[in-house]
Design brief:
Strand order of the largest sheet: 6-3-2-1-7
Number of strands: 7
Length: 95
Amino acid sequence: MMTRCTLKDGSIEIGYADPFRTYESDSFDNEVHDYIYLWTWDNLDETNHKLIGDDKNRYDQTYKKVIIDDILMVESILYSNPRWGGKLTNKFTIQ
């Protein structure tokens, strides 16, 4: 789900949050983590809402580690995944 985290220092981190995956590690490691990962598409044409590039790098993603103690507010758009009818975008917009 598309998520916007406002941090205590006033900065904002935006990306897709997936509570079932942990970047480059086993998601079921029986540990409680003090961070979440937000990810965005690297090769996304925001005008046409489509991934671009060849099959090797079209699906590349950038993961941003966000420390939970640094988060002041979390806003999420439920059902923002394009599989549920939303646009493919890296932007957090509410209409």
